[in-house]
Amino acid sequence: MKRTISRLIQEKVLFLGQRKYTQAPVTLRQLHFCSALVYRQHGHPHDTVRIEEMALPALGKHSVRLKMLAAPVNPADINMLQGTYPILPMFPAVGGNEGVGEVVEVGSEVTALRPGDWAVPWDAGFGTWRTEAICEAGDLLRVPRNIPLLGAATIGVNPCTAYRMLHDFISLRPGMTVIQNGANSAVGQAVIQIAASLGVKTVNIIRDRPNRHKLENELKLMGADFVITEEELEGLTLDNIIQELPKPVLGLNCVGGRSGGLVLASLCDGGTLVTYGGMAKKTLQVPAKALIFKNITLQGFWLTQWKRNNHEADVRGLQAMVSSVCDLMKSGQLRPPECVQVPFHRYCQALQATVQSQRKKHVLLI
What we know:
alpha/beta, 24% strand
């Protein structure tokens, strides 16, 4: 502990995700500390993550002191720890890309936020697995306090991914149809609810399972119009299964392999397939006839890149997106995902629950 403090005083540097903050010379008495889940190399979470006391830099005139309230442990967070994610923070790194905090103090020139506000980081690599953070005000987006805490903590990735995919690729009108695989995933559930709010119909593909009918009922309560298994769709065409809906104009693929091919084959002429994940870790099957005779458009989507591109252009676009998703939560049209809440000091339990492939609920550090 003393060695860590001495090193911080000597270097006068604190790393926050991929950002580096420098501060003027300080004495031990002037330092403020937070507890953080830190890793200094890539590997298995249990071998690399440790809880540490970290010094916070002084509050600058454009800075915010944020008390973290809740932060999920997402699969992407685990990929970062393992070193397999497309973007990786500098070491030492604090885990966590998503979460919500309460503004405790602001710098003299900060106007967009004030003490008492809730805020979420807009970019990946923030390092949300900590009790407090000092960051630039521009690193945060404000969220209303009258939405559920669990919703605020998980709003930055999955609901925003669903929102963008339903708004950016096809001009969807009420009555149109969207088809997706991985429908019971966090993004899939958000797609169902946001599409329903737009009057857009959804065909939702899931893997067959013993509790298939229970899951089907849960998704329909969220607003799903049809829920079918991969096996059902492979045995018949979508036209044979669903006759009262127009053919899907937009397909959303987070699985890849055979499942992604089924989504593609179900699209109407001129439809668009958006791939945002590859959970099956298998190559997307794209028959040549779909491109030649049906003129299907293939697109990819990664929310992190979208945020970075649009933050450079106009940060108000990011705030507008988050505000729109929050409005859906306030109106009850989008509900927070089911979460297992884990106290911060029991972080090993949270990491283990996320690493397990059978994980069915979000794991949230409180």
